[in-house]
Amino acid sequence: MQWRRHVTGLAFSLVFVVSYFTNKFVLSVLNFTYPTLFQGWQTFIGAILLIVSGKLGWVEINRITRSAALSWFPGSLLFVGNIYAGSRALSRLDIPFFFTLQNCSHAVSYMIFKVIRREKTQWLKFISLCFMLLSAINLPFYDPQVDHSSYLWAVCHLACVGAYRVFQVHHKSVSLSDLEQQCINYLFSVLLLAVAAHPTGDLTGALEFPSLQSHTFHCGCCASALLGFLLRLATVKLKSGLSFEHFGVWIFLSKVTAMLLSPFIFSVNSNASSLLCVVVSHVGEALLIYSERDSQV
Hints:
Structural class: mainly alpha
Number of helices: 13
Number of domains: 1
Radius of gyration: 19 Å
């Protein structure tokens, strides 16, 4: 029924906003800038909750074969790059700026699809991607507190997001559901991030972190892990019940809601020019969703 779709969409938006706000709080307000440990903790809890949910029959997860897991290995690498670089960027970028840069992942996907499929150019889609790309390119010049390293991490993040989107489309397999793919991502991420924790210096830095014994820090980390897991479940549930176009609408609405509420929760440093970049980027995203009403990417 239609009302059930709306309830699912609203639940997704709520989890989306609270999840990003919680991550931003831990990364920026508490200043826990150790992404191998932060994302390792999130993926570890996510893996446990997903496996337990499968064992209890709450979600459907079948036995994953070794060949299926190996075939999904490139996707897991992109997933790790996505969450690691995303944490680095989100820790120093305001949420509206982060989403403006993240929108460029659509341009990355489009360029890869263009090479692979050699499709005819849809001009409305091309114009929308230009809006997003130009906004992201100009944003660092107008950001009042520009941090070049955060923008470099954001570029890595959007590249991984865009490439992962393409990989999902071109490696659809009847042997792996979305949740099974996510389970592989979680398990691989835990392994890789655990190995990387010491060489990156995150382990040493975290042991000396001033708020390590703080209840606020513990609650924030636990909430971020649980919300990250719930967001994955909500995403799969929403995608399974909606068309690609309507799923994109809920993503767009969730991002706009997060951006509008973020100044009430966090300190946002902006000016008219940087806000114009944000607005133009999301106008471009709205046009992209409109252009895809009759086709899927």
